[in-house]
Specification:
mainly alpha
């Protein structure tokens, strides 16, 4: 790979990584107010619709846009403009059919789906989200086409636009519907309408971009037949789709089992079961937040490792992957420990309108902090295994962990003495199994064996000390302010002081223990500048 091509490659990855970071930040400012607007029951209705949407989305868009991007990139490298256009037309027909089928299934099969999910209250939310499947399929096709030509900016802009619409439209709609007394079922549907409208506007934005940025005409190459191109897209896209959709399917099945066991085994009403499941969902939102920011790191670093492996430069690939592990350890371990140490204060801080739900969610978040660490490791190791050409292994490990989760939830949640508290335990075991298997396979197939103890020991020690400091400061400030402030105000100040103390302690330990190196930051945007500021070697 030439230096110019490598810089272009990294620049594109950095653009997408930045867009993902912005989208996740917007998502945070969407989810936190939404969780205050919807109670725990409405949260379950919202989640049920989103889980179905994620399954259909994964099946229709996870692997096929990547396949299209790869084939378009190859055609562009060969100077075959007509081949590129034929690929786009062929893929557009495929995406159109998949999107139409997915939307029709969600809209016309809503009654059947809600019955299978043991969640009739999600009826309106599922129907409100149904058109989004079609819009996002067309959207993904255009993204794959533009990314294949090395232009990441339209995709990045459309992702940000989609997130802004979700925030700016979904929240006001949900607030107005619930304030009008129309109930949580319709409130969840109104909130999710922001997603549907966002995907529609993003699709129109990218379609307009294509119409105004047509390539030059006059190409003389003869493209392959449509059936040949369709076969190539399917051969590349299907294995990736299976890998990426496995966890979405397992999450949907697990959602159904939890609600079903709460109702059938424990005799709860659907509303009571939904309320318990929603409290667990509040905690899972916090657990998934740090993992969402791991993805931009992998997007920036893993392509460079893939390029090194293609050059058979195993030493460079090992250096990059070791840096990725160190960065994930530095990010994931303190996040997981911090969420666990300050679980209830954090939930009370972000759910001021739902104090009872916040206390219940805090109990779930305490053990789930460790699941956060496993999820981050899973995200990184999945990417590393795909870089090594072992795309099927993540499918197997995810299915294994998912089966553990389903079986444990069936047993634990159905136990009257454990009930919904079994869900966090099964999640920890699920992601722990996946992360453990992935770490083993990365070690097995790495040309240079990663030294996990060396990579994780110092960040773990620093994180434990940070967690102890945060817990102690939060508790001290909370007790000191207990008599002179409102309950929420005292908790908010205590939680923020605890977080600040944890950040300060961890920052000092990272430098003192020399956990972070300058080379770890070179592969991410503005990394070298940050290394100079921190005086890293």
């Amino acid at each position: 790979m030439s230096k110019q091509r490598r810089q272009s490659f990294l620049g594109g990855a950095a653009v997408l990584a930045s867009a993902v970071a912005i989208v996740k930040a917007i998502g945070f400012f969407y989810k936190i107010p939404l969780n205050n607007i919807l109670n725990s029951e409405g949260k379950t209705y919202f989640d049920a619709a989103y889980y179905i949407y994620n399954v259909l989305l994964s099946i229709s868009t996870a692997g096929f846009p990547l396949a299209l991007s790869k084939l378009v990139s190859e055609a562009q490298a060969q100077g075959r403009e007509n081949q590129k256009r034929k690929l786009f037309r062929t893929a557009l027909c495929l995406f159109f059919a998949m999107g139409l089928a997915g939307s029709a299934f969600m809209f016309f099969g809503t009654g059947i789906v809600t019955g299978l999910l043991n969640n009739q209250g999600a009826y309106y939310a599922i129907r409100a989200l149904a058109p989004a499947v079609f819009f996002v399929c067309i959207l993904s096709c255009i993204r794959g086409y533009t990314q294949g030509q090395g232009n990441m900016k339209p995709s990045a802009a459309s992702q940000v636009l989609e997130a802004i619409c979700k925030l700016g439209i979904g929240l006001p709609l949900a607030w107005s519907v619930i304030s009008g007394g129309q109930g949580m079922e319709r409130g969840a549907a109104a909130a999710i309408m922001g997603v549907t409208i966002g995907t529609a506007l993003s699709m129109l934005f990218l379609a307009g971009y294509l119409l105004t940025h047509r390539g030059p005409g006059g190409a003389i190459d003869t493209p392959d037949g449509g059936s040949v191109l369709l076969k190539r897209i399917l051969m590349i896209g299907v294995p990736i789709t299976l890998s990426n959709s496995a966890m979405s399917i397992i999450t949907l099945v697990d959602h159904s089992i939890v609600l079903g066991r709460l109702q059938d085994a424990l005799g709860l009403t659907e509303q009571a079961a939904s309320a318990l499941r929603g409290q667990y969902g509040y905690a899972m939102d916090m657990v998934n937040l740090p993992a969402a920011f791991v993805f931009p790191v992998t997007m920036s670093l893993i392509p460079v490792a893939a390029a090194a492996l293609a050059r058979k430069d195993h030493r460079e690939a090992d250096r990059i992957i070791s840096s990725a592990f160190r960065l994930i350890a530095i990010l994931a371990l303190p996040c997981g420990v911090g969420l666990s140490a300050l679980s209830t204060p954090i939930m009370r801080l972000i759910l001021p309108m739902r104090p009872e739900d916040a206390l219940a969610a805090g109990v779930h978040l305490r053990p789930l902090g460790f699941a956060c660490i496993f999820i981050c490791i899973m995200t990184l190791t999945n990417a590393i295994l795909q870089t090594y050409g072992k795309e099927r292994l993540p499918v197997c490990t995810v299915i294994t962990g998912g089966l553990v989760k389903i079986v444990m939830n069936y047993i634990l949640v159905g136990n009257p003495d454990i009930n919904i508290h079994g869900a966090p335990v099964s999640s920890i075991c699920c992601y722990g199994v996946i992360a453990g298997l992935n770490l083993f396979f990365v070690w097995k197939y790495s040309p240079e064996k990663p030294r996990y103890v060396r990579l994780f020991a110092k960040p773990l020690l620093a994180s434990l000390l940070m967690g102890a400091a945060a817990w102690a400061v939060c508790g001290f400030v909370g007790r000191a302010l207990a008599s002179g402030h409102s309950a929420y105000g005292a908790n908010a100040i205590a939680a923020l002081c605890g977080i600040a103390a944890g950040v300060a302690v961890y920052g000092v330990l990272v430098v003192v223990l020399q956990i972070l190196r300058a080379e770890d930051l070179r592969g991410i945007p503005h990394g070298e500048k940050l290394a100079r500021i921190l005086h890293l070697k």
